[in-house]
Predict the 3D structure of the following.
Amino acid sequence: MDKFLEAAIEEARSGLREGGIPIGSVLVIDGKIVGRGHNRRVQNSSSILHAEMDCLENAGRLKAEDYKRATLYSTLSPCDMCSGAVLLYGIKKVVVGENRTFKGPEEYVRSRGVELTVADNKECRELMESFIKSSPKLWDEDIGK
């Protein structure tokens, strides 16, 4: 398995252990993880801390040229908000662990020039399926349902 997707899965597991939603993300530039995060909406009582947003926040302030060399890994297909951040900062590559339990605006992101790859990773999918089954109301809240 891709070591960066594995790092995103570790983040997802951390979120679950903290009582949150098991979605993780890492930002990679030049083969190095520069930011990590996981969904912290529950833990921080936040309206915006999806895994990708937490990851970008933890990466800190970067230059535009850095984002253009970056790859964002996420265990789940990024939602509209997180996809918007990808587009805003000009991140050129996104690797998605799975998109069966939730599919963000992937085609739109691709149409804007982002190389988006779906790994269809079994562990990512099982983490989300288990969580959705055990916490459907929290899941619906997270995706604005």
Q: What stands out?
A: The longest strand covers residues 32-38. Helices lie at 3-17, 41-44, 51-59, 64-68, 80-89, 106-111, 122-134, 136-142. Residues 3-17 form the longest helix (15 residues). DSSP finds eight helices and five strands in the chain.
